[in-house]
Specification:
Blueprint (H helix, E strand, L loop, with lengths): L1 E5 L11 H15 L3 E7 L9 E14 L2 E12 L2 E8 L17 H18 L6 E5 L5 H10 L8 E6 L7 E2 L1 H7 L3 H4 L14 E2 H8 L2 E4 L2 H9 L7 H6 L4 E3 L29 H12 L8 E7 L6 H13 L3 E7 L3 H14 L5 E5 L3 H10 L2 E4 L9 H7 L3 E5 L2 H6 L16 E3 L4 H17 L1 H13 L5 H14 L4
Parallel strand pairs: 1-2, 1-6, 2-5, 6-7, 7-10, 10-11, 12-13, 12-15, 13-14, 15-16, 16-17
Antiparallel strand pairs: 3-4, 4-5, 8-9
Helix pairs in contact: 2-3, 2-4, 3-6, 9-12, 10-15, 13-16, 15-16
The structure holds adenosine-5'-diphosphate.
Adenosine-5'-diphosphate (ADP) binds next to helix 1, strand 12, strand 13, helix 12 and helix 13.
Length: 489
């Protein structure tokens, strides 16, 4: 099978969060199964060029833009063994020369252009994959353009699988974006197509992706239910219910090559379940790096984008609660929101003198690995969480997750005391209510166990490490989906 991924992110070269991990992980899995996989990305100026091999230009491309054309360079390179195509427009707006992936006022313009450019490139270069797999609102226009424009130009083979990673961002925009990419608004801005449910004058790019794709997935079974039956659907509930026959939740995997404490090049001491005692050296190294006191205390970590979705009030509360309960607290978090940034810098300022606390308001891949290797618990108190990868990464590194029972967290974390799973499958602590008391009810039990019953805590770590969160199962599930929608030969 020949699969082309069209995405705004792919780790390690362009990652802002879990989407980047997903694209790389599934692409590796599909390649390992013997399928041909290619990834098309924007050529951001902030790409990790040090992770791309043999990058070179292969093609000039002219992409329609309103009534004009924009000249692009198409380059190809290898990133972690995967073939990536990079589309670099010479646009007067410098679409991908912004020093970051998202968060620009013209994001809709930038990614609509990218969606059209990716299809234009595929058509001009004669690429006819069996499956186009695209992701989130940024590439929601891909199936729309395929069916409204490119099929008429001969691209009749590819079928589209569209994955929803986060319904909090749907690509709400205006009709001008459709004109930009060559679509006639009157034809597609209807209630059953791209018209937003809440506001008829708004164009919803994610809705277009859902309606026009052959299959739609989201990243956990629980979130698939939530987005159809609760306000987590953020206005798309009816659309998803209408298309329920082609919609399903597939729990994400994590890339076991990259997230592997036995081989991780970023950590001081490699280890596995059989040598779990060696993890202590990573804890000591983390303390040295972050200037934390060397004391008999658990390290409780947060590794997260700092956005409201992630439960910012409860993250702040966790910091204070840990310090008041003899635990150390470490946060690695980044945000594009200046207000949130300021508030966490203020918290850092307040707590920085405390030898049991370190807040790093930044994005740092290497430090994230060291935190997973060195900490004892990870807190994820999300308001909503489509899947969440950090609880799974944490478990792989022998870290006990403390999470709110929502979305993919509910599908992966089973409470040490209250779960109906058998004991060997219980792997963390869970709370329901989005309140300080809710968080405390779980965090207090986790910290208490660490102090009073270290052997039982160790068993919880091992239980988590024994879960298989690799791409093995989700990879097979995606393959089954791709096979079910593939065009007949
Ligand atoms: P989301 O996709 O909503 O950001 P996920 O839990 O699905 O959340 O994925 C987050 C990914 O991004 C994980 O690989 C995590 O380690 C990484 N990550 C999040 N924040 C940071 C940060 N500040 N520095 C480095 N890596 C981060």
């Amino acid at each position: 099978m020949y699969v082309v991924m069209i995405s705004a992110e792919s780790a390690p070269v362009a990652k802002a969060g879990g989407l980047g991990d997903f694209v790389e992980g599934i692409a590796h899995d599909m390649s390992a199964r013997g399928h041909r996989v290619e990834i098309i990305l924007p050529r951001y100026d902030c790409l990790r060029f040090d992770r791309i091999w043999e990058l070179h230009k292969v093609q000039d491309l002219w992409v329609p833009y309103y009534s004009k054309w924009i000249h692009c360079d198409v380059e190809v390179g290898q990133a972690d063994g995967l073939t990536c195509w990079f589309i670099g427009p010479h646009s007067p707006q410098a679409f991908f020369h912004r020093g970051r992936i998202y968060g620009e006022p013209d994001d809709a313009d930038r990614f609509a252009f990218f969606s059209r450019a990716a299809l234009e490139f595929m058509q001009k270069s004669g690429r006819h994959p069996d499956i186009i797999h695209c992701h989130d609102w940024q590439t929601g226009l891909v199936p729309v353009l395929l069916y409204e424009i490119y099929q008429q130009l001969g691209m009749t083979g590819p079928r589209v699988c569209y994955t929803l990673h986060n319904l909090g961002h749907q690509g709400w925009t205006g009709e001008h974006i459709l004109r930009q990419v060559g679509l006639e608004p009157a034809a597609v801005v209807t209630p059953d197509r791209l018209q937003d449910h809440g506001n008829p004058t708004v164009v919803n790019l994610m809705k277009g992706g859902i309606v026009y794709s052959n299959y739609v997935t989201t990243v956990s079974p629980r979130y698939a239910w939530e987005v159809q039956h609760s306000d987590q659907g953020m206005g798309l509930q009816q659309t998803l219910q209408r298309h329920a026959a082609k919609f399903g939740g597939v729990l994400n995997g994590i890339d076991y090559e990259i997230w592997n404490p036995e081989t991780d090049p970023y950590i001081t001491q490699t280890y596995c379940a059989d040598t779990l005692q060696r993890k202590a050296r990573n804890k000591a190294a983390l303390r040295r790096r972050l200037l934390l006191e060397d004391a008999v205390r658990p390290i409780v970590a947060v590794v997260s984008r700092l956005e409201r979705q992630k439960g910012l009030e409860l993250i702040r509360h966790a910091a204070h609660f840990c310090l008041a309960n003899d635990a150390q607290f470490v946060l690695l978090g980044a945000t594009r929101d200046p207000e949130i940034n300021d508030s966490f810098r203020e918290l850092k300022y307040q707590l920085d003198d405390n030898p049991n606390c370190h807040l790093e308001v930044a994005y740092d891949e290497e430090l994230s690995h060291q935190i997973f290797a060195g900490s004892d618990m990870i807190v994820i108190p999300s308001v909503y969480e489509p899947c969440g990868l950090t609880q799974m990464i944490g478990m792989r590194y022998g870290v006990v997750p403390v999470v709110r029972w929502v979305g993919g967290l509910a599908d992966t974390v089973f409470d040490a005391n209250y779960s109906d799973q058998e004991f060997t499958r219980r792997n963390g602590y869970v709370f329901n209510d989005y309140t300080a008391a809710g968080l405390e009810s779980a965090l207090k039990r986790a910290i208490g166990l660490w102090f009073r019953f270290p052997e039982y805590f160790r068993q919880l770590r091992l239980n988590g490490m024994a879960w298989d969160h690799s791409w093995n199962r989700p990879g097979q599930r995606y393959l089954d989906i791709f096979n079910s929608i593939e065009a007949p030969p």
